[in-house]
Amino acid sequence: MKAQLQIYMSRKNNKTFHGFKFVKSSGGIEEYTLQKNDLTVLVLEDHSTPVATFMVTYHVGSRNEAIGYTGSTHLLEHLMFKGSRNFNKEKGTAIWTELQNIGAQINATTWNDRTNYFEVVPSEHLERAIAIEADRMRFAFLRDEDRQPEMTVVRNEYERGENSPFDVLDKNIWATAYQAHPYHHSTIGWRSDIENVSTERLQEFYHTYYWPNNATATIIGDFNKAEALALIKNYFGEHNASKNDIPGMYTEEPEQEGPRRTVVKRAGQTGVVGVGHKTPEGLHEDTYAFQLLGKILSEGKTSRFYKTIVDRGLATSLLMYDFPLKDNGMFITYTFLTPDTDHQTVEDIVLEEYKKIINGGVTKEEIARAKAQTRASVAFSRDGSYAVASALNEAIAIGDWTFYTTFMDHIEKVSTKDIQRVAKKYLVEEKSTTGWFVPKTTKMG
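The structure corresponding to this sequence follows.
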């Protein structure tokens, strides 16, 4: 039964709700603050299908960890499913059971800058998702008897990553590029920390960061805004804001003053070359030029690297990513080599292509094609309530959810000169971090 709360709505603008402060709107999405505890709430009604997505994003990720408890954010994410005050096995209301019984899709993810928990539910069951997330925000059990088996699950996940040449190389490139900043370690953490972090340390981490004033609740899909906000107020309004300031992360990565290298030699079948360069924080204006540059270099058979590397039989495939982060990120090209290809040959081609862009820029045809590709990928990424909530989640993580709603406006403004400028500024060899994965049966060239 839905909470029977009185909620006052202004007939004039439909944005005034009792207990909430309207903040702003963009792209049809409205932001509110729950005045009791400063919880941020984003809402977007879409009645095209009888489904709603509820997601809670916490501003805590692996960037908030330190030596000795790397991976704690991820391990804590696992423990959050093991029960809370009102949803647990003892009461016959275990979280997974409660949600699966109503046909919900549920999960959680951890990344550098955030942790999120979400449910995709039939519209009539939105209240159950809200109730569960509100309960485990402050009343998760986090018991030692649950940590032990979940530690094993996470360790197995770590070991699977260690068997992937790409995952291993990516981890080593980040660890080489970032020597002071916590982006140095991956979200999964180091094995010894996973195995030895105490339950008390995880509880301390939880009680430091899991507060309404350090979270954003997002509701997308088929729901009534007034009713949904009433539910938020009823369940999340039980919590106070943290009495203490949420700790910030102040470590800055020192300026890189020369190229860096890392080589991983392990058993394997495929050699991999990764060439990375640091990028600015995700909300920096240069982020948009990097998004287009990545497509010009690597997306489709007309891309530069496909022509110079894959078409020549030097690699079976390539991958490039520039994932915007709250702090500085990385623009990395990965090439997966064919058996007889020399690592140095491909590395030289990548760096030479960067030099061509630095000196000669890109063509109008290339940037037009990249913008068209971006429009298509953005449209696809916004298909459905979960897709929208997930994309908003990443924008929230880097510091401004309107990054999602204004993304294409910024993309359309990028010029060929902008792309050449960012290449000159960031894609220089002295600022590079290069990694090779060398199968032990392969000679280094």
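The two ends are 68 Å apart (CA to CA).
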